[in-house]
Specification:
Layout (H helix, E strand, L loop, with lengths): L8 H13 L13 H10 L5 E5 L14 H10 L4 E5 L2 H4 L3 H10 L4 E4 L15 E5 H4 L3 H10 L3 E6 L2 H10 L3 E5 L11 H6 L7 E5 L5 H9 L4 E4 L1 H6 L6 H4 L5
Parallel strand pairs: 1-2, 1-8, 2-3, 3-4, 4-5, 5-6, 6-7, 7-8
Length: 253
């Protein structure tokens, strides 16, 4: 976090758009595919569990990928991804709930909805197996949002960046916690973030997020206690989705 404690302007813009989008009027009920089981199956197959991200664009990447998200998702799963993350934020990431629905219908792997969810009604925009809740953005609303998600059948990945947020996630009852190596105040990435925060996260499934692009990065995060990795840009930009196991075969570590 920078000295002022403020978010990067790009992140502020994303949150403003999320507030304006509002939520759905109905209520979803999800029969979720087990993220734990998917991670265990990957380990049994000799792979590091990877959540591979279908991300057309982002504020930290250049250009927009025009690939069909379903084809990308299928190739990622064929390449060894244990689960998928699909962006549903439209204005800044080029995602949509429709993309997620199409992907989830096409693959058997658990699908994480990655978006900036601020209210309970926003949970009802689309069925997914897992939803992302960002501790920093939700503040005291984290626990009720987590409970609301579980009532609908979702599994929840709670994202944190600091030790204090990690403790708050545990207090809220999180079972899956992602440590984002990207500082949302400045958008820079530091893998030491996971190494610093992970020791606070006993008893939960720990996911390292952001900045993981090489086998050395994978080794480093696994050595620091990562049960799984969420990889976006390195797969999308590097065409690693052709064979995700090129980053993740456990006998190489």
């Amino acid at each position: 976090m920078n000295d002022s404690g403020r978010l990067d302007p790009a992140v502020e813009s994303i949150l403003d758009a999320a507030r304006e989008r509002g939520g759905a009027t109905g209520r979803v009920s999800v029969d979720a595919r087990s993220l734990d089981a998917a991670f265990a199956a990957a380990e049994d197959a000799g792979h590091v569990p990877i959540i591979a991200e279908v991300k057309p664009t982002s504020p930290t990447t250049e250009g927009v990928r025009e690939d069909d998200p379903v084809e990308l998702a299928e190739r990622m799963v064929e390449g060894g991804a244990a689960a998928l993350s699909v962006l549903t934020e439209p204005e800044h990431f080029g995602g949509s709930p429709e993309f997620l629905t199409r992907v989830r219908e096409a693959v058997d792997a658990p699908v994480l909805r990655k978006d900036f969810l601020l209210s309970e009604s926003q949970l009802d925009a689309v069925e997914a197996d897992v939803v992302l809740l960002i501790a920093r953005f939700l503040g005291d609303d984290l626990e009720p949002m987590l409970e609301a998600a579980r009532e609908r059948g979702f599994q929840v990945l709670v994202e944190v960046h600091t030790e204090a947020e990690a403790r708050r996630a545990l207090d809220a009852g999180a079972e899956f916690v992602g440590v984002n190596n990207r500082d949302l105040s400045k958008l820079d990435v530091d893998l030491e973030t996971f190494e610093r925060v992970a020791p606070e996260l006993d008893g939960v499934t720990r996911v390292a997020e952001s900045g993981i692009s090489t086998r050395d990065d994978v080794r480093r995060m696994r050595a620091a206690g990562a049960d799984a990795l969420l990889i976006g840009s390195a797969i999308m930009d590097g065409d690693v989705y052709e064979n995700t196991t090129t980053l993740t075969t456990t006998d190489e570590f």
